């Protein structure tokens, strides 16, 4: 038995099993929980592939940040009637067929490349600690130290690394931070947007502005909002 | 209905001897494919807006597994000439996914506050 | 340590079974079980001690005696008696609870708290006692520590009780916010040592307390204070224990829990207290090195006396004792703070994080960087500078980025 293969099988089974559980369950809180387990098992797969920085990043940002945010959202919106929203059986059957076909296609394509099957064991050892932090940091700063240059006499900064992408992503994150804070500010922003819509009658809008988000008044307001659209269609 | 050629599933046979043979890139790609497919199906069938968002996360993770596996010298030995490109791409995907989730969640909460439901099938005001 | 243990266990199993596989499967399995068992026992036994200690300290602070009956004059066996009582209690579950999440939530917290110990070293370079030495150890420990919040959120949600849900919401907001300044503070020692490997960070501070990163610069000193505040908040201890504020929320997220499941939450809490304290000791307080240069490491008197094998191992063991002492002192400080300070309001908690801790941590990080850049040898006596030490620290890990840069810009690549 090879422990690397054993742990790969374990983490792969966890990741795939809980990913399927996300699809199959209809309770949105359970879905979020299974997603946490699936993505944590994926982090284990990254560790096994020697990408320990990516694995830690997955745990820190994805599981510890993004999914906490997601569960936060689920808890804010999971009122009685929204915990389980079922799908029509025909849609499920169609999606299952398409998904199965896609899965068979992708996985048979993966094993078509002989060099990828892992028959020829590469040089690897479980005791070896991968060192990826330094080279990743250098690549983000614009120097590729992990790759040999294309030709022997090319200058050292021939491959400029990822400094531009790093900067763009930093600015992008700032924009997202501001934008998300603006969007999530609450009903003040939302109502001002709706008020500018001339086709809606004003009485509905006043109902909407005064509605309590968790009460039944809001449901009625949403139904009155729905009805003109349906008659129009 | 799905007429498969008989040798389509043959390459999947190495999965049988999983515990005694070393792992290759293909095994990782299969895991990525399962996550990707699960995410697609999740996005297509869930009516809860946050469920759709979870499907997106699964799809992104499936892609990330492929990036890491193809760049990994542990799995490919000397054939891995990508260096850290795969890992860096995975890092960018993770960071952008966090940003995407923040915006999507803000939209979802806004939608919930405005319409009073989280069911995407009822988001039909713009239908005309 | 893992490598030594693997070799010894491989030899043992080879002798017992006759032959070992080409991948040394038995040796790895035994080594893994042994190390996991040691870490588990460390957390469990320190949990037992800490609960007793907390009750004694609380008693003394409030001018009473604390437990005195069970187990002699000082009540040593009080925790075990409590544990027996908890074992015998009925395991209740609310009727409307989500049974799967309700039952799983305590185990998630305990698993997160325990698995963070995997990457935590207990001694320095010649014999690093660490279950899995990682190049990203600081990052890994903080990441896994952040997963503990799921336990509280799921417990609070699945209990179907409004008190629990309030506690869970507070906890989610608090922990996610406090991870930002916590990470910013932990980056300062990482920057000073030039590595995320905790073994390298600890060894870069050897040779007496004036080499500790706590005393590196005024900025690093403030950083330590901010780190400790944020660590207290992120392990959900008073004065930041909003999630279980018993005066307003009954029991907070664990209102509906009883018996053994309830105690698992507390084992996880004490485990993470221990973890952040040990991490603080390694990052800022010299880790396994003594307050004065004791010469326990490589080239010291212990190795000269007993040889590099036994002497080095003994030195590592003494370093482990030193590290655990520092961690214990920090835990006692946390308990002192808990019984001295009143609990904050939720808006005060968020204000402390977002308006004070985060900007202070950012400014201090910048200040420490500038200090290191302008005074690379420090203001005080610093016989060991970090560059020298990294050159000394032999071993497969610790390729510092700075060296890579030098090699790279020299153009000496193949």
Automatic annotation (TrEMBL), chain A:
It is a multi-pass membrane protein. Its main location: membrane. It comes from the Bacteria. One of its GO terms (cellular component) is plasma membrane. The keyword Zinc does not apply. GO terms for molecular function: NADH dehydrogenase (ubiquinone) activity; oxidoreductase activity; quinone binding. The chain crosses the membrane at residues 31-49, 61-78, 90-113, 163-184. It holds the Pfam family Oxidored_q3. Keywords: Cell membrane, Membrane, NAD, Oxidoreductase, Quinone, Transmembrane, Transmembrane helix. It catalyses: a quinone + NADH + 5 H(+)(in) = a quinol + NAD(+) + 4 H(+)(out). It is found in: Cell membrane. Residues 194-233 are annotated as: Disordered. Its EC number is 7.1.1.-. NDH-1 shuttles electrons from NADH, via FMN and iron-sulfur (Fe-S) centers, to quinones in the respiratory chain. Couples the redox reaction to proton translocation (for every two electrons transferred, four hydrogen ions are translocated across the cytoplasmic membrane), and thus conserves the redox energy in a proton gradient. Belongs to the complex I subunit 6 family. PANTHER family: NADH-UBIQUINONE OXIDOREDUCTASE CHAIN 6 (PTHR33269:SF17). This is NADH-quinone oxidoreductase subunit J.
Automatic annotation (TrEMBL), chain B:
One of its GO terms (cellular component) is plasma membrane. The chain crosses the membrane at residues 20-42, 49-70, 90-112. One of its GO terms (biological process) is ATP synthesis coupled electron transport. NDH-1 shuttles electrons from NADH, via FMN and iron-sulfur (Fe-S) centers, to quinones in the respiratory chain. The immediate electron acceptor for the enzyme in this species is believed to be ubiquinone. Couples the redox reaction to proton translocation (for every two electrons transferred, four hydrogen ions are translocated across the cytoplasmic membrane), and thus conserves the redox energy in a proton gradient. NCBIfam families: PRK05715.1-2 (NF004320). Belongs to the complex I subunit 4L family. This is NADH-quinone oxidoreductase subunit K. It comes from Botrimarina hoheduenensis. The gene is nuoK.
UniProtKB/TrEMBL annotation, chain C:
One of its GO terms (molecular function) is quinone binding. It is an enzyme of class 7 (translocase). InterPro entries: NADH_UbQ_OxRdtase_su1/FPO, NADH_UbQ_OxRdtase_su1_CS. It comes from the Bacteria. GO terms for biological process: aerobic respiration. It catalyses: a quinone + NADH + 5 H(+)(in) = a quinol + NAD(+) + 4 H(+)(out). One of its GO terms (cellular component) is plasma membrane. Its EC number is 7.1.1.-. The chain crosses the membrane at residues 28-53, 104-124, 136-160, 172-192, 212-230, 264-290, 310-336, 356-374. It is found in: Cell membrane; Membrane. It is a multi-pass membrane protein. Keywords: Cell membrane, Membrane, NAD, Oxidoreductase, Quinone, Translocase, Transmembrane, Transmembrane helix, Ubiquinone. Belongs to the complex I subunit 1 family. NDH-1 is composed of 14 different subunits. Subunits NuoA, H, J, K, L, M, N constitute the membrane sector of the complex. NDH-1 shuttles electrons from NADH, via FMN and iron-sulfur (Fe-S) centers, to quinones in the respiratory chain. The immediate electron acceptor for the enzyme in this species is believed to be ubiquinone. Couples the redox reaction to proton translocation (for every two electrons transferred, four hydrogen ions are translocated across the cytoplasmic membrane), and thus conserves the redox energy in a proton gradient. This subunit may bind ubiquinone. HAMAP family: NDH1_NuoH. This is NADH-quinone oxidoreductase subunit H. It comes from Botrimarina hoheduenensis. The gene is nuoH.
